[in-house]
Queue: 2 jobs
Job 1
Amino acid sequence: MNHAANLETIKLHQEGAVLFAEISAPPMNLMGQELVRDLAALIQRVESDDLLKVVVFRSADPSYFISHVDVTRIKENRDVAGQATGEPSLALLFRRLSTSRVVSIAQIDGRVRGVGSEFILACDMRFAARETALFGQFEAAFGVIPGAGGAQHLARLMGRARAIEVMLSGTDSDADLAERSGWINRALPARELRDFVNALAHRIAGFPSEGQAVVKERVNAIELVPAEELRTDGKLFLQGVQTPAVRGRIRSALQRGFQTRFAEMDLPEMLTGSADWK
Amino acid sequence: MNHAANLETIKLHQEGAVLFAEISAPPMNLMGQELVRDLAALIQRVESDDLLKVVVFRSADPSYFISHVDVTRIKENRDVAGQATGEPSLALLFRRLSTSRVVSIAQIDGRVRGVGSEFILACDMRFAARETALFGQFEAAFGVIPGAGGAQHLARLMGRARAIEVMLSGTDSDADLAERSGWINRALPARELRDFVNALAHRIAGFPSEGQAVVKERVNAIELVPAEELRTDGKLFLQGVQTPAVRGRIRSALQRGFQTRFAEMDLPEMLTGSADWK
Amino acid sequence: MNHAANLETIKLHQEGAVLFAEISAPPMNLMGQELVRDLAALIQRVESDDLLKVVVFRSADPSYFISHVDVTRIKENRDVAGQATGEPSLALLFRRLSTSRVVSIAQIDGRVRGVGSEFILACDMRFAARETALFGQFEAAFGVIPGAGGAQHLARLMGRARAIEVMLSGTDSDADLAERSGWINRALPARELRDFVNALAHRIAGFPSEGQAVVKERVNAIELVPAEELRTDGKLFLQGVQTPAVRGRIRSALQRGFQTRFAEMDLPEMLTGSADWK
């Protein structure tokens, strides 16, 4: 894989069969056109590089892994994904990580909300820093279903009651709670996380590819979210965000600081209490 | 909703779009005809009140949330449920909470066993007091399957081995164990539980209804227990309780203090060791 | 049941309706022909003894519950299983425990890896010593899927990400981690484990059989792994172990101490780093 390749928002670093992909889309790792384009390019190239066996996703920003989708670019994001995969859907783009022969690991510091959560849920494994990681799937606070599979993943992982709590409350789960509910594989002390993921990635890369492929294939046959369910949620999300009510809530949120780095440090607080949301 | 409405066993208190329903059926919140009738009436009225978005269930008795079904009134309970919903089944009555646009939260102090457990499992979320809540699904100790969906819910939530353990052991799980196994969303310190649930209920009520509806609908499409499975378990339960062996065990249990407030403080102990049960 | 029956690798001890079966196949409780033959005989006899209600599996070796399959005897093991059940499959032999009217409990001290893990996953319940139990499903390190249902059980119990982690990492989980991920019912202090399981087994044996049967039947209808999926994994495993690449890895591992008691005390370490495995 050509490391000098033109990825604007992802820095690559390869060690043997392990590729480290560091997300860097200042000021807050919003999922906008550039990051979607780069993720799509990366996923395609990883697949076609026979020397790669594991890809690790990290963030250059200790406070934000991926914040959420850029709500002013929803249609453009889908179009960019569609150019890469033939179908305008972030969920189906992410799903290629789940079905790939390459093993994907998310190493999570900071906030992972909305489509960021849906991205890590499509990775094969996810580990998070106990002190800093925060998880949110808050789309229902705007009146819509998560657009890229969040409801599908969370309901299967944590059961009906916890998935509903997460989505309807619009609050953050810290890493310990996310571990207890199954959102992530495990929470680790922040200072140990990087070494743990490095060692795991290299260990897996040292084992034979065919074992990884058959395990993923058979586990996917049981637990992978069907593409059709992702398409349904995607359509419901798109219908929702085009209604005047949701557009009004988005405008109102943008005026209150939504999509700014500082205000989203405590997004649950920001989402609270505006009477016109009801 | 008319708060003065004639609910004998449930005290209502409304704050904005949140309705608090406090169960009070002394001496031990048995699920008898009165409580079934009142729950059925409440569920129907909540549904039809467009101003309501969240209903919180609490108990007036700190030792019993809902103890279990009144075993001397199984047929009458079903008939009362049938008058309300058209089908003589507590499971299908409770299931209306799961499918309702209104969000339901159980705030649990004290014992929740048998049909009480099945009631909270049909609510959208459930939070319990760490020091006082106890959970049991003990029907198998009498020789029958839980009658209102317990096996269905528990197997899906906690997996095969833990569901079998809970049902065959006839012991209680405390709130911490219930959290670890997925029976409840979370255990909280008893002194914080009420404020936590209040805040969560009002927070959810502040968000748009259409988001809540679409999230519940899509999560239900994945994880809601099919009505047909509830009917099957209900039939098996009813067949079981009509056999001489089970009727004998019920009589024997009633003689030993079953369905009395004091003896059921430690129901697992009471269930132990009577040789004629085998 | 005739306790003097000729089981070479399993010592039997009966107390009332509870049968204790202590696995003793020195030097490390490998799953070879003798143990397969004895497990098959035991499972058949337990089924046919109407006085038995619960069977508890223990190990005579505090360091190994069941280590894993004897990789030099894979075909012979299947044939022995086939003689007992009509189908040459360990997975389908173990599955008879899951579908039996008799309740099965695994009491786990020491290491449980590979087919040992698959055996306990087919039991109705499993409890482990916090200080000594270790769990591994490491077949993918040799390039193959687990052969007797491991992927099926783990994916359903712990979800996609944790099942993939367990199988691709080839590391051990200790009992606390195994509890958190759902691999076992619960971890207990080693000194309390035996008494806990004894009491649970006798308690269950004191309750009526028909309740146990109907609960297992209804839970199995939801969560039991379909036999067809076990057959598919079994075929994939067998195909894998017959390839030159996997045979070479097995030979290489045997030379490095695989299947010796001392070297497998830290099997994950032993699996690491041999360049020819890639």
Note: The first strand of chain C starts at residue 10 and ends at 15.
Job 2
Amino acid sequence: MTDHAERLTAAKQRVGAFSKSAGKTMQGFAAIAKAVAEPGEFSAAQKELIAVALSVSKGCEDCILYHLSAAKRLGATEAALVEALEVAVEMGGGPAVMYGSRALAAFRAL
Amino acid sequence: MTDHAERLTAAKQRVGAFSKSAGKTMQGFAAIAKAVAEPGEFSAAQKELIAVALSVSKGCEDCILYHLSAAKRLGATEAALVEALEVAVEMGGGPAVMYGSRALAAFRAL
Amino acid sequence: MTDHAERLTAAKQRVGAFSKSAGKTMQGFAAIAKAVAEPGEFSAAQKELIAVALSVSKGCEDCILYHLSAAKRLGATEAALVEALEVAVEMGGGPAVMYGSRALAAFRAL
Amino acid sequence: MTDHAERLTAAKQRVGAFSKSAGKTMQGFAAIAKAVAEPGEFSAAQKELIAVALSVSKGCEDCILYHLSAAKRLGATEAALVEALEVAVEMGGGPAVMYGSRALAAFRAL
Amino acid sequence: MTDHAERLTAAKQRVGAFSKSAGKTMQGFAAIAKAVAEPGEFSAAQKELIAVALSVSKGCEDCILYHLSAAKRLGATEAALVEALEVAVEMGGGPAVMYGSRALAAFRAL
Amino acid sequence: MTDHAERLTAAKQRVGAFSKSAGKTMQGFAAIAKAVAEPGEFSAAQKELIAVALSVSKGCEDCILYHLSAAKRLGATEAALVEALEVAVEMGGGPAVMYGSRALAAFRAL
């Protein structure tokens, strides 16, 4: 984890290239992402934090960076992030501690 | 999924029996659950819904029932549940559709 | 696994109910499913068998039934199913043996 | 979980049928299982309990039954089972509590 | 992901070292890999692409590199790879988008 | 994997920072870890090796390093590690081969 912002940029470039090849599939995925992004009972920032908790649960570091960055842009606080990560620890044990700790470090670095 | 309430009761009885044998470990787990249950930036009901989303992601039906039931008791609305499940679909694809659909059916039945 | 066809019907009904509540998200998911269904380098039946292998890998029984049924309707042979399941065993060990065996039984029963 | 022994028998029959269709793959898998079964630094019973912990981690109920049954036949004690399940809880959180509780109930019932 | 070929070589060396220590188990695994490699209803290249889809689903980067490399050596086209990755996205959502995008980048770089 | 000891130190620092923010949750987690660490039917070193097998199954490299390091400190032999990894291969196939091979390399390097 040398440079979180750089790694996020690289992930987005890879997804951009994949989207050119898998256009229709990725249009469907973008439609899901757009629907999820609409605020409702949860704010948009809270929804991104749920996505972070799920990313931690899956151990997907590119996903953690992507959704952390979105959450931060939408105004998510560190306190709210930590709460979402704590639920991930309840549901994931040790691996969630490890990836959750990575998520907190990334949130502070981004 | 004949009787959701019955299945939840059976799950709780099994966990009760396990807790007698694995006392110290389960005391630690209970401490995590208690910490997570405290309202903060997310309400207690919202945290249970995040736990439902994580349960859907893991495909753990006992977990879905347990956290759905807690969410409902804390006043979670169906609209908020659906939003949490939609994030799970974004992060989990087809299996999240299947377990999310089970979660919605259970929420209505419980 | 008393009645595979009945369980598949129940799963589809649950997904139908979820789709009413999570309309935009499920429209995006349907767009992905439609894009994936188009034959290309893999036939449509082969793609459904890849989805079965992934379902076995996730241990999602509703998914196994759903994609097995679609594969069968598209003319997938048992021999092709077994090959896809063998790749799942290579990549998943014991759990893939167990869910793969369930998939074969379901294919014969559906 | 009405009848654990019956469910185990059904799982073994399904695996038997799959093994006929996927002969060479399953011969390779059987060779792995045989190699793992040899006692070494861990006894054969202890190795089966590690397999139970991994089955709990994967949420694979057929696997839990299969390896629990083997562990019991090899003389594994309930105390040793509980210890293996506690490690699974450390590494898996809530879902491991749920599947671990199922494993303990099955051990007592088998 | 600085140098894909270098990382693949390192992975193969690690597996080689493990195979010396875990000889019988790895002979069983090699037998599975050999059985899976035989062309049938799916070509050998197609089977490697299914293995790539499963690797993406598991988020295992060493596996992605290993099976991508084998697929490429067997003549798999980029179009076929993308189709397999699209099924992975259908069955895995966001994390599959991220690992699938890594797989496409690796395929082009190898 | 340039420097295993350095990567382990970084992981522990991240967990330390997370523990400051998620105090009560991490106290509960520490209580679980303490309960699991007590020798019983399995020695403390054996329990750490079970945790390594579970870490391999989850594909969590920070977890692998953490529990490998603890196992080594408690006197675990390479032979016992390999046996635990072989069970992980039985229950996890190719990804377990890859992460197990990483675990063996790390054990030798630490």
Note: The helical segments of chain C are 4-21, 23-37, 44-58, 61-73, 78-109.
